[in-house]
Specification:
This protein is an alpha+beta fold and 870 residues long. It is built from 22 helices and 37 strands. The chain folds into six domains: 5-253, Bira Bifunctional Protein, Domain 2 (BirA Bifunctional Protein, domain 2), CATH 3.30.930; 266-361, no CATH class; 379-436, no CATH class; 453-547, Beta Barrel (Elongation Factor Tu (Ef-tu), domain 3), CATH 2.40.30; 553-695, Threonyl-trna Synthetase, Chain A, domain 2 (Threonyl-tRNA Synthetase, Chain A, domain 2, 2-Layer Sandwich); 744-869, Roll (Diaminopimelate Epimerase, Chain A, domain 1), CATH 3.10.310. The longest helix has 35 residues, at 723-757. The chain starts with a helix and ends with a helix.
Length: 870
């Protein structure tokens, strides 16, 4: 059998399909909004909420081939790419998962069968050994007693520094939360005496599979408690297992990478032994293509920053290979050809991806040239052969010039870098940046298996029973006056935030009132977050739950309008619009979507008109609960990267809109009244955003705009029909006056130049002018100073004028004097003699001063200081 990467992926998924697993498509490279990850870095990411107990997964056994990216944080493979045989930034993670069904025995048996059975991967059993957590006796015995693996081939991995659970074989999601022991399977690349293997020596062995047993909840630093539901989470890198099955020494020698690397060689006519640079380029172009496919564009922060770093690192290695022309964007074709399971999606986005890469490549050429020029200048001024680490970081952080390229440049010029100082400086900078960028995370996270019934589609208030109370994440039997917490009811009209729609607010009343400030979903539970105003509420109290009806009705208007907008966009723009996010509250709605072209103003009006037409038809809106698969078959819109339960709620607006949606909506479109698009813009390359107001808010917006137009009419003293011609005439007249003014300014500047030349005074060998001028325009004064510099070289010019009892000074110094006399030094002297603010550069500076009593005295002080410096 030919073990191509494509075949290996299919074999893995087919194996688990036969084991009654549901095959799930890869989730997005962009994690869900509740994740603190920039990119999906493991197969389990899309199931995180189910491991945390927030939701119940619709299938108990699943398998995936998940696209992953590791470029930062705990899993940072970026710096190892090109220098390690088995690390990639972008890769596929094969995984099988169990949610409360099979556990250790079955998962180990599955793995062993797939790896060793001749019908499957057929790896010789003697080529495999495993690691287990030293306290996981059950797993050890499964490998030893059931699989019959020799004790020599089972390695116990202990805790680090005797800290319990701090082990490479004890997996933890975070400082707290689900965790458990894991067992790793290694492939022996070479046979060694006594079967002694160094797990860190990749020349001896390579890890191919990690099986995690999620059986505990870590409640604090030192304590774990058993989970009610135990799960299995496994991961096996597709590229890594391909290297084993294809009998090659590196991921970069597998079928996919060989094609990419050969393509890079051929298209650039390369004859080189620098395989590291070829590996970096091959890896990074894959990563860049799949990131851009997610509508991320290069930028200086967040995901865009990671993308920019990946692209520029690849371009730097192209520079190392002496590739002179722009080459990276031309590699998109080979990435499409070698990713068979993504070919169609990538082909659809090919032009877009290519253009983004090309733009970044062209832009980086400028950065590259600027960085090299900057380095050349600095190296010429070095007093020794050591370059400052802060300078290297400035080049990287401010100018975008990669550190690797700076290092190469320094090596070529025999310049030393203090690597330790540089590493520490970068570490501190990154720590500070991380602290500055930390987002406030809501601490309202609760774990409960209780299910609340939502009855808010038809009812806005219900009598309910208090079932759970949480304060500071701890379950309580009561909540007292002024305490903030979360109340769980047996049934509720409050809608928990979901699908872009914000959570309801309102009151829960007993003898006293609990003010609900937000409503969130916790697994199958609806949590009412708020504060009790007085008295107390206890478990099993009967209460009245009443939402803010006015707010809900406005939210419903906006949510239904979102569906009408989605349809209108597709119809007017004639493009397969893909929703990229939404936000719906009582004031407005926001809808983000993919669209690679500019939206014209007449298209906006047509979209707005079509939505209002459908509102005026007063169409009845129907909802129904059906099977998810049926909804898909009947063409209902759903989000590709979202996991849905087996039963879903569908929403139909006649034959206009058909979507899967659990949000609240109006009963008939006429209730919305009217819509007004208040904003439309591009928020990133290929992603647009439209904001809309509805009903009375829309009317108020229209009236405000009309009022502003009326005010403009009154100011211009013209009728509405003459408003645009009048404004155009004002603009034309203004431009004419500006030209005339510029002409007059040039005459005045020339006149002042001739006048001031006569005022030159010598301070030893330096020409000096300090004089008050009638020009009260900073730009004109700077032009005048530059003209004077050419006439009095070398010289110092100080021009000033009075305005509103303040003096404005502009100082110019010819370039040859700035080694010992700077314009900013003279600013400081002015500051010492009066109250002033200002600044500038060595050759040109300015300041504003007040309370000047004696300008002649200031002039004398400046002249004396200049004499002392000559």
């Amino acid at each position: 059998m030919k073990y191509t990467t494509k075949n290996i992926r299919n074999m893995f998924l087919n194996f688990f399909k036969k084991k009654k697993h549901k095959i799930i498509c890869s989730g997005s490279l962009i994690p869900n909004k509740n994740s603190n990850l920039l990119f999906t870095n493991a197969g389990m990411n899309q199931f995180q909420d189910y491991f945390l107990g927030k939701k119940t997964y619709p299938f108990s056994k699943v398998a995936t081939s998940q696209r992953c990216l590791r470029t930062g944080g705990k899993h940072n493979d970026l710096d190892q790419v090109g220098y390690s045989d088995y690390h990639n930034t972008f890769f596929e993670m094969l995984g099988n998962f169990s949610f409360g069904t099979y556990f250790k025995k079955e998962s180990i048996l599955y793995a062993w069968e797939l790896l060793t059975d001749e019908k499957w991967f057929n790896i010789p059993k003697e080529k495999l050994f495993v690691t287990v957590y030293h306290q996981d006796y059950e797993t050890y015995n499964i490998w030893n007693k059931i699989i019959k693996l020799s004790t020599d081939n089972i390695i116990k991995v202990y805790d680090k520094e005797n800290k319990q659970y701090e082990s490479d074989n004890f997996w933890q999601m975070g400082d707290t939360g689900p965790c458990g022991p894991c067992t790793e399977i290694f492939f022996k690349k070479k046979n060694h005496k006594n079967n002694i293997y160094n797990l860190d020596d990749k020349k001896q062995c390579v890890e191919i599979w990690n099986i995690v047993f999620i059986q505990f909840n870590k409640v604090d630093k030192h304590n774990v408690i058993p989970l009610n539901t135990i799960s299995v989470d496994t991961g096996m890198g597709l590229e890594r297992i391909a290297s084993v099955l294809q009998n090659v020494e590196s991921n970069y020698q597998t079928d996919i990478f060989k094609k990419i690397i050969n393509y890079i060689r051929d298209t650039n006519s390369l004859i080189t032994e620098n395989t590291q640079s070829l590996h970096v380029i091959a890896d990074h172009i894959r990563a860049a293509v799949f990131i851009i496919k997610e509508k991320i564009i290069p930028s200086n922060e967040g995901r865009g920053y990671i993308l920019r770093r990946i692209i520029r690192r690849a371009l730097c290695h192209g520079h190392k290979l002496n590739i002179k022309n722009h080459f990276l964007y031309k590699l998109v074709n080979i990435i499409i050809e070698t990713n068979h399971n993504e070919t169609k999606q990538l082909k659809d986005e090919k032009n877009y991806i290519t253009q983004i890469l090309k733009n970044e490549e062209l832009q980086f050429q400028t950065t590259l040239n600027n960085g090299l020029n900057f380095l050349n200048k600095k190296i010429k001024k070095l007093k020794n052969n050591n370059i400052n680490h802060e300078l290297i970081f400035y080049l990287y952080d401010t100018l975008g010039f990669p550190i690797e390229l700076t290092k190469d440049f320094c090596i070529d010029n025999n310049i030393q870098i203090n690597q330790k100082k540089l590493d520490n400086f970068i570490l501190n900078k990154n720590k500070n940046r991380k602290n500055q960028n930390k987002k406030n995370i809501i601490n309202n996270i609760i774990y409960t298996n209780y299910t609340s019934k939502f009855c808010g589609y038809k009812k806005f208030e219900v009598t309910a029973v208090v079932k759970k109370i949480f304060i500071n994440n701890q379950e309580k039997i009561k909540i007292l006056k002024n305490e903030t917490g979360i109340i769980i009811l047996d049934k509720t009209p409050f809608f928990g935030e979901s699908g872009g729609q914000i959570g309801d607010t309102g009151i829960i009343s007993h003898n006293d009132i609990f003010h609900v400030q937000d409503t969130q979903n916790f697994m199958n539970t609806i949590g009412h977050i708020g504060t009790l105003s007085s008295g107390k509420i206890k478990i099993n109290d009967t209460v009245l739950a009443k939402i803010n009806t006015k707010k809900r009705l406005l939210i419903q208007n906006n949510h239904t309008t979102t569906h009408l907008l989605h349809t209108a966009l597709k119809e007017i723009l004639k493009y397969p619009i893909e929703q990229k996010g939404s936000f719906i509250n009582e004031e407005y709605l926001r809808f983000d979507f993919s669209y690679p072209y500019t939206i014209k103003i007449n298209e906006i009006y047509n979209i707005e008109h079509l939505i209002n037409q459908n509102i005026q038809k007063n169409i009845i809106i129907k909802d129904q609960i059906i099977d998810f698969q049926q909804a898909k078959n009947e063409g209902y819109i759903f989000l590709e990267n979202k996991i849905y339960p087996s039963k879903v709620r569908i929403l139909s607006i006649n034959n206009i809109s058909k979507e899967i949606c659990k949000g609240t909506h109006v009963q008939q479109t006429g209730e919305i009244g009217i819509v007004k698009i208040i904003s439309y813009k591009s928020i990133s390359s290929g992603i647009k955003r439209i904001e809309i107001m509805t009903g009375l808010q829309a009317l108020q917006k229209i009236q405000t705009q009309e009022k502003n137009i009326k005010n403009i009419q009154n100011i211009l003293q013209t009728h509405y029909t003459s408003l645009i011609p009048k404004i155009k005439k004002i603009i034309t007249d203004h431009e004419k006056i500006k030209k005339e003014n510029n002409y007059l300014n040039q005459i005045i500047i020339k006149y002042q130049e001739k006048k001031l030349i006569k005022k030159i005074k010598k301070i030893k060998t330096i020409n000096f002018i300090m004089h008050e001028v009638n020009i009260k325009n900073i730009k004109s004064i700077k032009i005048l100073i530059n003209l004077l510099k050419k006439k009095i070289y070398p010289g110092i010019i100080i021009l000033f004028y009075e305005s509103h009892k303040k003096y404005i000074f502009v100082i110019g110094v010819t370039k040859n004097l700035t080694m010992y006399i700077k314009a900013t030094n003279i600013i400081q002297i002015i500051h010492e003699n009066t109250n002033s603010i200002g600044g500038g550069k060595s050759e040109l500076a300015q300041c504003t001063s007040e309370n000047i009593v004696n300008i002649i005295k200031i002039k004398e002080n400046i002249q004396n200081w200049i004499k002392s410096k000559i």
